[in-house]
Recover the amino acids of this structure.
């Protein structure tokens, strides 16, 4: 076990300064851990609460390498970072979690899917596509999802190709075609692992996506699944993090088919949208758990203490500029409603501006209120 965390003699670096880093720092403050942040946005959500803030590109080798030289441990809040710089820092003896070798696998969706095949991890059928000119050779994959191998985030870089007529909108760059799964539910499991190999997972949650924004619209915890499916999903998530050999926190997104089969969709090596509810609804939040994992501390209890729902606060279509949260104060009067505002000064369509967790005694109770909150809060300008 590391002995320095409570005395604050170590320097913990966070590569990326968005909302995930902001919520991570909020938990780190409770442990008196100082977090130093690198980000290219002078108004990044982490800027005002980080112990120090360095302005620089997280994809630039020199900027990231120089940032990491005086840090003891580095972690990331987004996969799109300069992995070569992290590898060089790791060779100098810096702790880098998740490890650069893991980020290499996850950053490229093609490499990620091949990892599943090589390690007997169940996933949807797929094929590689060098360019859109090759689509005619893969008509047997229709209907399918096309995913850019790199660069996609927050619903971008992913689209449905159902018939040949959809080929005209296909991405032109390297991508994968993934057979469309007629799933019964979309689930997510958050699992954590420290350097000692201790692993803990959170109860499964159920996600409902907005087809228009291609982002999570609702999250419900716990998932409405059988104990058998819960156990299988948990074992699968633990198997993935073990085979990666990863240190940190990992989100494992799953399809549950009507036949009860579980397929891994994608994984994210960091705190994740599908774990935001853990701040209010579990003994240990995903952000505290990530801190514990990268500092090689004992992992916290993942026990659920109350049912929860989470909705993303996304910028409304047709609005771009200084942000205003219409209707937020009205719902703050309801018991169990917990808003999290990300500190972004300007909104634009579908930009993640915050989230609201609704906590309560039963899933039915929080679901009903969640739909009211979703329809009653608008992220606009004025």
């Amino acid at each position: 076990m590391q002995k320095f965390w409570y005395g604050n003699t170590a320097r913990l670096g966070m590569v990326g300064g968005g909302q995930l880093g902001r919520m991570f720092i909020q938990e780190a403050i409770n442990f008196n851990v100082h977090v130093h942040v690198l980000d290219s946005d002078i108004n990044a959500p982490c800027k005002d609460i980080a112990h120090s803030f360095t302005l620089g590109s997280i994809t630039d080798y020199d900027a990231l390498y120089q940032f990491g030289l005086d840090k003891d441990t580095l972690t990331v809040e987004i996969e799109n970072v300069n992995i070569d710089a992290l590898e060089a820092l790791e060779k100098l003896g810096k702790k880098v979690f998740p490890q650069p070798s893991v980020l290499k696998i996850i950053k490229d969706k093609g490499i990620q899917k091949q990892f599943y095949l090589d390690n007997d991890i169940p996933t949807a059928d797929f094929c590689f596509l060098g360019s859109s000119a090759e689509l005619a050779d893969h008509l047997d994959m229709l209907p399918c999802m096309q995913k850019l191998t790199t660069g996609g985030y927050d619903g971008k870089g992913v689209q449905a190709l159902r018939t040949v007529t959809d080929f005209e909108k296909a991405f032109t760059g390297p991508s994968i075609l993934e057979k469309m799964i007629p799933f019964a539910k979309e689930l997510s499991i958050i699992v954590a692992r420290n350097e000692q190999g201790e692993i803990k997972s959170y109860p499964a949650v159920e996600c409902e996506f907005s087809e228009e924004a291609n982002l999570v619209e609702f999250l419900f915890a716990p998932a409405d699944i059988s104990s058998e499916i819960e156990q299988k999903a948990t074992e699968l998530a633990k198997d993935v993090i073990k085979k990666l050999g990863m240190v940190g926190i990992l989100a494992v997104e799953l399809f549950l088919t009507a036949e009860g089969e579980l397929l891994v969709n994608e994984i994210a090596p960091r705190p994740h949208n599908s774990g935001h509810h853990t701040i209010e609804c579990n003994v240990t939040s995903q952000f505290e758990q990530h801190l514990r994992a990268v500092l090689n501390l004992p992992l916290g209890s993942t026990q659920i203490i109350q049912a929860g729902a989470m909705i993303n606060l996304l910028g409304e279509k047709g609005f771009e500029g200084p942000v205003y949260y219409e209707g937020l104060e009205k719902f703050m009067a309801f018991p169990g409603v917990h808003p999290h505002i990300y500190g972004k000064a300007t909104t634009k369509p579908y930009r993640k501006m915050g989230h609201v967790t609704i906590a309560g005694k039963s899933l039915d109770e929080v679901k009903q209120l969640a739909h009211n909150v979703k329809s009653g809060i608008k992220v606009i300008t004025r």
Notes: The chain has three domains: 5-96, 125-179, 183-380.
